[in-house]
Amino acid sequence: MSKKPVLFLALVVFCLAAVFISNYWHFLNNQEPQKALFLNYFDNKVGESQEACFSASLLNNSSASSLPFSVQYSGKALFSESLNFKGLVEKEYCIDSAVLSEGDNLIVISFADLGLFYHLEKGLFAEPSKTVLEKPVMDGTGFDFLRLFLGLLVVLFTFFIIFFLILKESSGTSGFALSLGLLVVLFIASFFVLDFFQAVSAASLAAALLAESIFLYFLRLKGLFPKIAQTKASHNEQTDSFNFYDFVAIILLVFIFLFSHLILPTHFQYFNMFYERSTQLVVANSGIPLSDPLSYLGSRPFAFIPGYFMVEASLSLLTGLQGQALFAIMLVFAGLLFAFSLFYCLEAFGLKNLRGLGFLFFASSVFVLRFLPFFPRHMLSFSIMLLAIGVLVKRKNSLFSGLLLGIAAFIQAPVLLFYPFILVFAWRNFRLKQFLKSFAIGIGLFALLFLPIILKFGLPSFAVPDEWGYLIKSPIEGLLLDKAVLLFFVAAFLIIELFLVLAKKQKFLDKSLQWLLFGIVLSVFVEFLVSFRFNIVSSLLIALFALHWLGFHKASFRKLAVLSLLLAVVVFYLLFSLIPGGVVSNNVLFAAKHLKSISSSSDNVLSDPYYGHIVEYLGQRKVLADLWVEYADSGMLDGSWDFLKTGNGRILEKYSIRFVFSQKDRVFDKATSFTELEEPLEFPSLNKVYDDSLIFIHQVPS
Q1: Tens of pLDDT, residues 351-393
Q2: Residue 98 placed within a domain
Q3: Same domain, 308 and 346
Q4: Calpha distance 175→191 (Å, rounded)
Q5: Which of 275, 468, 543, 698 could cross-link to 362 by cystine, CB 3.0-4.6 Å?
Q6: Residue 667 — φ and ψ, nearest 5°?
Q7: Which stretch of 13-17, 196-200, 441-445 has the lowest confidence by average pLDDT?
Q8: Burial level of 676, CB count in 10 A (0-12/13-18/19+)?
Q9: End of a domain among 132, 167, 201?
């Protein structure tokens, strides 16, 4: 039985399951900190013979049920008690102005190890003047079932034409990967052209997708469509059966993409929030906007490579999905594409029967297992690059390979460096002419797609490029942790090789394995000395080395390696991957949402740039600087760090800052490290209105 109908049905079920399960994400995690203390309102001015009042909310999710609460002025306790409660309570307290001094008074509120303070001026006032803050408002999610159905119908019908008609000669898994990749190409092509004519809408996107797929089918009937699939499938490709390794890989994928989110806020990654908010801007603008209204106080051009935003915005416009439901379907789409693109690439390198095992080796990297599955943008770009490699190696089609490479680069430019590196070391029968042709086409297409941004904003520039951007090196401890399992297997295989050589049973590795080993060493050095982004390359080369090595040895070696790998992956996953790297803590999530409720849309926020994307996405407020460093204002970025480290009040005045959002004990002023503070990050001249033991929010007095 053909696998195509089964795979098509699996795509439908997987996408629908992702959308509906997303409604139950985090049901074991309420996204609240253990403790929090925040002001609801406070009197900032009071006259003689009056009372100055305040209201504070106290959140307790900790194991301690009885916690101290007190109010102080000038070191004297005005009020104190022991509170026994769980959840959220509100405390109101009024201070007789007779106990206060003329002029400025600092009122300090304490709850357990948390503390707030605000400035209260006593003078000749007719009545108290009040600063009103509010409680956090949590946003809900939902979607329109009819629009979702119609949008998915358009997408699936387009995929159906590609999968069953245009690529009908391809085997199930190969055709599935290529069809998903071609669908991404159509998304970007449709959006790019419609955006040029300022005609982006759900209707125009649907019409463009259907028209393009039908046109490609017409070309295929006329014999003009590139031959990226076999014209006559071999018996092995016709059967296209799944083996044990494939099923283990698929089970791991199902758990990661559908169920891990039920426990943790895995989509709330520091940079995912930037990507998702950028998609929101594209959808709201019905096209690529000229500027970002929140980043760098709205002065920053919208100049990030927009390929990913075009794909996700297309899905949003067609289906009406937003928020985590949109992210869920995008994650599943990118995840399926990534898995089957890797399968296709491994098949191209002659490893069809070990493709599932190859996925498990590849997933033994910390980056691949802890980070990559929760970043659909990265998965999308790497997937299209893997397809480009597979098409060139398997079908020798430089034109289509170059087209895919250009699209992959339009999602994430570094793949232009990964592509040649992988091919040089992994392609046994390397063909220079075909490679150069595909590479030139890829670079040319990327340049053409990126040209509108250059014409609008000039050549790319980076704020503090030595710390942020593409050239972030991996520290040695990070590199070793990332490759721990993979390096263990490489070392084990090399020890076995040496043993066999000493026993005079064989020579030390064949030439292709020696070349792969050299590529691994070189890529690891590039990761350590130039950019950690090469981790995807080194991990893939190690996986290829392991598979080829196992292919040269007896089945007993393979069985032992497989059992060891499965044990290592399971232990590794339990140790590290149930808390995916880069997930934003509950403290930060709650604080950012709280900031939204206590501020107005016109308020400017000075945030530690590390948290800038979170404040913009969840808090929906203008931020002085975030870590979107392309075309960024380095003065604003440096100004943020300067204030957090020195308390320079001129920066607040210069940029009309109303709130400061910071971490209690450190400033993230470096890409791979931070500045640890000796004292908590307090600003006595401001009002401290929020504390959850990790995040502080200060308000600049009016």
Answers
A1: 888 888 888 888 888 788 777 888 899 999 999 999 999 999 9
A2: yes
A3: yes
A4: 24
A5: 543
A6: -125, 125
A7: 13-17
A8: exposed
A9: 132
**601 and 565 within one domain:** no
Do strands 604-607 and 622-623 pair parallel, antiparallel, or not at all (unpaired)?
parallel
Q: One-letter amino acid identity for 162? A: I
For residue 570, pLDDT beyond 70: no
- pLDDT value at residue 471: 63
Structural domain span for residue 634: 586-699
One domain, residues 639 and 692: yes
Whole-number Å distance between alpha carbons of 517 and 203: 51
Residue of higher predicted confidence among 263 and 273: 273
Say if residue 263 is in the same domain as residue 360.
yes
Q: Residue 4: helix, strand or coil by DSSP?
A: helix
What does the pLDDT read at residue 581? 54
* Shared domain check, 595 and 474: no
Pairing of strands 103-111, 114-122: antiparallel
Lookup: tokens for 158: 């387009």
214: tokens are 């039908």
Q: What is the pTM of this model?
A: 0.90
609 vs 697: CA distance, rounded Å? 14
Tokens of 686: 């401001």
Question: How many domains, the chain?
Answer: 3
Burial call 576-603: b when 16+ CB within 10 Å, e when fewer: ebeebeebbebbbbbbbbbbbebbeeeb
- Report, as an integer, the average pLDDT of 173-177: 91
Q: Are residue 196 and residue 294 in the same domain, yes or no? A: yes
The whole-number pLDDT of residue 655 equals 96
Q: How far is CA 700 from CA 354, 606, 615, in A?
A: 61, 11, 17
CATH at residue 55? 2.60.40.10
Asked if residue 82 belongs to a domain, the reply is yes
SS3 659: strand
For the record, the structure tokens of 41 come out as: 């309102």
In this prediction, residues 441-451 reach a mean pLDDT of 96
How large is the average pLDDT for residues 269-290? Answer: 92
Rounded to the nearest integer, the mean pLDDT of the chain is 87
